[in-house]
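Box 3.1 A note on notation
Throughout this textbook, protein chains are presented in two layers. The first layer is the amino acid sequence; the second is a token string describing backbone geometry. Keep the layers aligned when reading.
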Amino acid sequence: MDVNFGLLWQSGWISHSGCQDHPNWSGFMQHVCVGEHPSVSEVHFLPIRDLNTSDNNCIYSTLAFIKQQAKQLNVVTPCVTFDQSLWVKAVKIIKASTMNIFYRLGGFHTLMSFLGSIGSLKAGSGLSNVLEISYGPNTVCHMMSGKAVGRE
């Protein structure tokens, strides 16, 4: 639709007469788009579940709610992000109930897992010694285990 409006606006320059000003793009769009338009974004508060977050019933009911909301919005496969401890439980629940939900580990925990795997793979390679030039030995120990990540 924008292509058609763009073509119409551009064609106005061809048939432009000297006695009438040609509106800029913003003025043109305000002239042709009349009526009610939704705001840029809307915020809706969802219900708060007063349950223990590590309880399987809480995780399952949250996943069922996500599935219901996705169905209303015509989303075939919703994506949900959990931190590491809840992610493990959510994976088991989604697989056991055969829900069509894409589960994802949160970015911070993904980074921690990556750093821990690098530390495990490179253990004894001298990487610790190189890092100890810039960081203290205790810090390097935590970095190589994936437990020291800057959260800035």
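The mean pLDDT is 79. The first helix runs from residue 2 to 14.
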